[in-house]
């Protein structure tokens, strides 16, 4: 048996001993232990060094708010995780843990010199130092600061574990499975149709009831009552129980993020299981039953190893059978610490005395302590402590005394009362109010459909906690009350810095343990003029630790309040942000890592193109064939050949990446009419129409072709990169602005492979492949579609062109894409068919003056700016962005308009993005004044045997025929402003 382990008791499995190591030393524990409880059982209190001063630190709490016992865990680099809280790390066979923030060892840390030099490292010292000499910042100060920053170390090998994510919906989500949470879940799940999820961050559900020694509920002990509740909940099919699951983030519309630790506690996990699972839960109602956190006392040297929270000590003794020491001194301002002292005394710890800040402490637990012969010191504080790596004594100071009494002890238990855990409630932007009786903020007004129950809203009496949880589960209803026999501890407490008789400018009385923020640091912030607690937080870093101030906030508020003479309500409260506790990056990333971090998305034709040596480029999230080089061709030679083929013969292009959305329903036509600028209600079945979508502000968002498949069905296309954005835009309007429209939207981008056949010979290539369709000029005009089959495969055939030539787009199910592509290619070989890539597509469309959204548009272009005024209906009642188009600024003179550019030297290809200025006769003249615009697209046109460009130019259309300059490093390049359509302005080549 370990030196500080009781002979019996606790919830550990004494028949299952385990070995583990900490800093290379092997220790023994039991199944059911945490790393913290096992270390304490072996007499290990020193577990780390503080961040700034490198002071020795020990285990302070028993929960996720632990500020000191941050350790690295992992037997190898691939499984190493830094900054885990030892209080939450479940023990398993062979666990390897190391301390952090020390060198060369935990007992002998060179960084402890900072403690000696502490007067130079007061709050905000970094704002006032490192200023001189200026040249030393980059080479001296910054490297040193970066080396010292942070806690722990990042592993150097990729994480070998797997993480998963899932979505869930429920009627009631209960966060916290203590007495209030259990009562809420039981009440809510009485309705068999109500899906209930109960989660708790601990390995076992039950909260404080798991270490409760006195209370009796419905005739059962605390642990037995928990067991009975869980048995009932497991028997209900509508209940999901999630232990080891932290509710870390509360987001709008009752959306909660939960992190479930699935295999982190196992020595040998099933490789099919993830280490963690991210639950993204949408709940109709949420009940927060997150309990409360015991506040530390602020007194000189209150951070030595061996000093811990009183309730934490009780927790370790009753739940794990672990003694925090042999001789304990208690420092408190409430009755709960007396209960802890009595439980520890029963477990075998000598209680050297109880120092109570209250003048006349009273209550049943106080009387029990007196009856047990425990010395009680009323109106007494702790003025200092002694001990290098663990506390060895403490000095008690009575009010009015000038000297104190030193008492030997190897642990000191402190309690300044309890603070409701309002972190998740705060994340929702719910309003809180200050409760003078509780000395704390509690939830007041909810923003979401949420209720707080139990200690997290300041209800501490066990019977009231259970009733409060039951009412929350029933959403205000009432059920059968539980019969409870328990002694209430009240809610007395203390906030701020305790009196100690010393010089407050010299002692180190810690408020925020992890960031080494002392009471004098907080006072200094007020002396510097800071009045808001948010400003004090940033100046001192109090509340910026991993617990986000759950331990320190109330004490810091009280000190500021005392210093500036204003109540806590006038100072404010810091904002709690997600995540509630530190959460692994793997949990958020899920499967999105390695190749899946930036997935390679390919079309059904991709492999065919790769086999023929295509060069690929990334377009949005897709890999697209950029060009098809032959015989050692470079980009320019290949593109020139491909352009000639399309203009003279026929080309084949993979357009599968175009975004595709199907709009279906009785109100489909009305929906499409409202989304696009041009009219669609009267579009005939089988008709195609180019469409433009705007943002609410009237600027061009995307474009594409819309086909009417049936009276209630439309097939929409978007740009390759715009598909997710457009679908989100449509869903947003459908769900929030037009929920009455009977329409549903489906992304079909990956359902269809799209084969574009473009060029004068296009019809001849495919007419023998389509089954029974007449695709002659007379039967199927430009901008029409037909449904049918091609080689027996279902097909939507569109007569549409992005090249200016006769063109068809063959839409077939993706699974048949390559087979149909190969058949089309084979049919086209007698006609000189040539595969072409995106670069050729860009050149051909630019010759026709067709825009690409995101290239000719810059986020501030309205349709008229890019020559699309014709696509804006004048008689429509409404469409997205319509009212914004009426703003004077969007039609004012001087707007940039799309034009074409022809350089005076036809061999010069302009740089895309280059600025445009007024013309000057001297090519070497320095540009002055504001730019007129910029080049949006620029290519060499094989068709025109010269360079061409598109640009946005101020008053561009009015300046056609004028000369402007493009200033470049080697001088100005002169160009003439021309019409943006360079080729076949009459569209004669389309109508064949």
Short description:
The protein is α+β, with helices and mostly antiparallel strands. The protein is 21% helix and 28% strand. The N and C termini lie far apart (94 Å).
Description of the structure:
With 992 residues, the protein is of the alpha+beta class. Helix content is 21%, strand content 28%. It contains 24 helices and 50 strands. Strands 8, 9, 12, 13, 14, 15 and 28 form a 7-stranded mixed β-sheet that branches. A 6-stranded mixed β-sheet has the order 41-42-43-40-34-44. A hairpin with a 2-residue loop joins β1 (13-22) and β2. The longest helix is centred in the middle third of the chain and has 14 residues, at 635-648. It starts with 12 loop residues before the first strand and ends in a 14-residue tail after the last strand.
List the helices and strands and how they pair.
Blueprint lengths: L12 E10 L2 E7 L3 H7 L4 E4 L6 E3 L11 E4 L7 E5 L10 E3 L14 H4 L8 H4 L7 H13 L14 E13 L3 H10 L7 E4 L16 E2 L2 E2 H13 L4 E4 L2 E7 L3 E7 L14 E13 L3 E3 L12 E3 H11 L6 E6 L3 H12 L2 E7 L7 H8 L4 E2 L2 E7 L6 E6 L6 E4 L2 E5 L2 E3 L2 H5 L3 E5 L4 E6 L4 E3 L9 H12 L10 E2 L24 E3 L4 E2 H9 L5 H8 L12 H12 L3 H4 L13 H5 L16 H6 L3 E5 L2 E6 L7 H14 L2 E4 L4 E6 L3 H8 L12 E7 L5 E11 L2 E6 L4 H14 L7 E4 L4 E7 L3 H5 L17 E7 L2 E7 L7 E7 L3 H12 L5 E2 L2 H10 L34 H4 L10 E8 L11 E4 L14 E9 L4 E9 L8 E6 L2 E8 L14
Parallel strand pairs: 1-7, 8-9, 8-15, 9-12, 15-28, 17-24, 18-19, 18-24, 19-20, 34-44
Antiparallel strand pairs: 1-2, 3-4, 5-6, 5-7, 10-11, 10-29, 13-14, 14-15, 16-25, 21-22, 22-23, 26-27, 30-31, 32-33, 34-40, 35-38, 35-39, 36-37, 37-38, 40-43, 41-42, 42-43, 45-48, 45-50, 46-47, 46-49, 47-48, 49-50
Helix pairs in contact: 5-6, 5-11, 7-8, 8-9, 12-14, 18-23
